[in-house]
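Posting for a labmate who doesn't have an account.
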Amino acid sequence: MKSALLVVVLIACIQATTVSDLKDRLSGYGDHPFSSSMINLVSMNMKTGGSLNELKQLLQQIKDELIALTQLQDQENATFTRRSQVDLAKLQATLEQAQQDLDNQRQEQTSLNNELNTLQTRVKEDQAALDRNSRGSGDAQSRLDAENTDFAAKYQDYSDAILACKEAQRLLMNLRGEGASLIQLTQDTKSNLIQTKENFQKIKEILEAHTKKSSLTLFQPIIEGLAEMTTKVNPETLNNVLSLVARLITALQEGQDQLEANHKTQVENLTRLGDDLRNEKQTLQVSLATANNRLKEIQSRLNELDGLINISNAIVEVTQLNIQDATRINELEDQEYSNQKVSRQTEIDIVDRLIEYINQKLSE
């Protein structure tokens, strides 16, 4: 061992002293094996007349190694503790799972014993529900017709709005292309702007009747910008209105797409409802016919559950014993680590006393 080699080197470096002085210095550690070894080795080396400074350096090296060894033991103990905690957690999880399996298996036993009667009762209830749902088939068709009518009207509103926006966009792009800037407008252009503004106002009122989309907030600044341009065309206002119109077109197209998607979903749901009503009666009739076969399956499963419950009970018992064993091992390991830590600290204290002794000799 490295510490043993350092002690051998120590023999050639320490000045002479007496065994009695060293024993007095380490009187509190007389029963510790490390204390006796250090007294013998140091006394022998001090008789050879070695350098006290070199002796002090070697003692410091021994102390550093002891501290490093203590830190290593702390790390190893921490690693062991973490692993032990993981192992215990796994055992605990196994135990909890086995107990949960037992609960589930016993609950399944009760459920299976009642399933046949429950099934027969449920079939009668489902038949009554099916009769009621069948009477609602006509209502489902009426809802589908109303959905189609409402969708067509709203879809056309969006189309009219998008078309008006694009026409306004062409008009404004033409104005920008002509370089109109703070000049007197022609009567035709002014009329077109006024008509466009009125169109936007009408479309806004129509859309407000069936949507709360945030895109509606874009209408008002567009209308105000068009009103301003009926007297003069300011490039900044023109560009701003064009930007708002472009945003509005995008928003309206998204709204129209969402409307169409929602309509498609509604149609699919209503169509599926009719299909479900037609299929449910046949399904329930088949369910009742298979009840006797299901009873045989239940009895087979109950026999299987008896074996599974026995297995789960055995797992619980074995796992509990394993947890007890692991806990005892951890306790023993903790005690061993504690004893080693105390012993190592004692060795460090002994070396500290020797260093103090050397410092005293150096100061004499």
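Reply:
Got it, the structure tokens are right above this. Residues 52-135 form the longest helix (84 residues).
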